[in-house]
Amino acid sequence: MAMSNWMIAKLSREGRIAEARQLFGKMPDPDVIAWTSVISAHINRGMVKEARELFDRVNAKKNVVTWTAMINGYLRRTDDVAEAEKLFNEMPYKNEVSWNTMIDGIEEARKLFDCMPKRDVISWTSMILTLSRNGRIDEARVVFDSMPERNVVSWNAMITGYAQNLRLEGGFNLFERMPERDVPSWNAMITRMVTAVGFVSGGAYGSSWIRSKNKAVRPG
User: Could you provide one GO biological process annotation from this protein's UniProt record (predicted)?
Assistant: First the structure.
């Protein structure tokens, strides 16, 4: 069983769906690992309908990974948010990965985020990114300010949100408050904000800001 599972996973990763299905079909009683590997392989190739047919055959052998893979398929490959949400609501058990998958994929994710029994920094950051992508930058900032702890990724996510929404002053001010600014963060800030500035003021404001802060804020 273990060798068959390994081969199915290998063939699936390589996109050799027909061979994976052939080997899978020869297994007398495939376990959840085999089922999930084949389902994920179809999803990765954009074959969501075929993946769903397999998913519906798994029955009692579905686990949280199987459910999350199928939900992710609808969100990433078909943009069928309604079906993804329907499956999510039917899940007998949800973990942080499944919650984060839904948060990252649903435009109206805030109500789902608020229902999470436990949130980690990935959950918070995913919510910030989702809100920012949908133009809800002020709401994203409320989420950011409510975070019990932040890392460099969450700071950069919020700054990126300001840049994407052309809220330059907010992005610059937040960067100045950032407690840890390494070289990648500094370079990313310049790239994001100056690109956004080009749409607003021809770069004059951003260039002036960078020159004024070059001595005050230096990468460590």
Answer: RNA modification
